[in-house]
Design a protein that fits this description.
The structure is a single chain. The protein is an alpha+beta fold and 271 residues long. The protein starts with 19 loop residues before the first strand and ends in a 15-residue tail after the last strand. The model has no long low-confidence stretch (mean pLDDT 93). The protein is flat. Helices cover 31% and strands 25% of the residues. The chain has a four-stranded mixed β-sheet with strand order 1-9-10-11, with helices on one face. Strands 2-5-8 form a three-stranded mixed β-sheet, with helices on one face. It has a two-stranded antiparallel sheet with strand order 3-4. The chain has two domains: 31-145, GMP Synthetase, Chain A, domain 3; 166-268, S-adenosylmethionine synthetase, N-terminal domain (GMP Synthetase, Chain A, domain 3, 2-Layer Sandwich).
């Protein structure tokens, strides 16, 4: 089957040449990222199990995921989870073929626990999270598609994908910064910082403003003074990292945890 590729030069001004650019990236500990990553991990694991059990991948849609917030009781130097988070995973999946089934829900839960253990070291996948699997059996029509055997499978759905490259200097800087502050080197230097990171950049002409939201772990912060002292060290480290990165701006300003307010206790710290 031939594929037609159409190439056309866009008349628009490149993003980096425009006077305003806004970029945001959510780190691996952000709820949106967690949901997307776990849903993808479950789909991959189910595909492996389908191949092993049935010799082919059966129909499944694993793309509906919700992370319901939990509750904690914090104090400088520690805290406890009073109400665990809840991960709800839904949509449809094939539970097997006549005469043979697989434990879809158990596979989904174990995959989610494994992902959390591997990527979120400060979250206990057993004690800090509850799992609600709402995967329902796939429809007869969709399930039958995967009985056609080898070759291109037919579809009764529509889907479009959009991609772009290369990243602008601002986009690349935001990606690099998020990966740095969530990377092993930074976490070894600042083990009191968490993974639920967001980085936003606003570029106006060649002036760039970076806002970083990054929680600190209460068990590693014993006083308000210690919080702001460590935050200052984090800011210095981030500024050095940014200075060493290639970008097209004349000036870069960085703010970490913009809502912080000294003298307000827990109300003025992002723990």
């Amino acid at each position: 089957m031939k594929t037609r590729i159409l190439i056309h030069q866009a008349p628009a001004v490149s993003v980096d040449a425009q006077p305003l650019e806004i970029v945001e990236r959510k780190g691996k500990g952000h709820p949106d990222t967690i949901c997307d990553a776990i849903a993808e991990a479950v789909s991959i694991q189910l595909s492996k199990v389908y191949q092993e059990a049935f010799g082919r991948i059966l129909h499944h849609n694993i793309d509906k995921c919700l992370l319901v917030a939990g509750q904690v009781k914090l104090h400088p130097g520690g805290g406890r989870v009073t109400h665990p988070m809840r991960l709800i995973l839904g949509d449809r999946a094939s539970f097997g073929v006549p005469g043979k089934t697989i434990p879809v829900s158990d596979i989904a839960v174990e995959t989610a626990r494994t992902w959390i253990k591997n990527h979120l070291p400060n979250v206990n996948p057993n004690n800090h999270m509850r799992y609600q699997i709402e995967l329902q059996p796939t429809s007869t029509e969709l399930g039958a598609i995967f009985e056609h055997g080898a070759g291109v499978l037919p579809a009764n759905d529509t889907s479009a994908g959009v991609g772009y490259a290369p990243l602008t200097p601002t986009e690349q800087l935001v990606v690099n910064l998020e990966q740095y502050v969530n990377g092993p080197r930074f976490k070894r230097a600042f083990p009191e910082t968490g993974e639920d990171v967001k980085v936003m950049a606003v570029r106006m002409d060649r002036m760039l403003s970076l806002t970083v939201a990054m929680p600190f772990l209460a068990r590693r912060i014993t006083t308000e003074k210690a919080y702001f002292a460590r935050k200052a060290k984090v800011l210095q480290n981030v500024q050095r990292f940014i200075h060493a990165q290639p970008h097209s701006c004349k000036r870069v300003d960085v703010v970490i945890n913009a809502l912080d307010c000294p003298g307000q206790g827990l109300k003025g710290m992002y723990l």
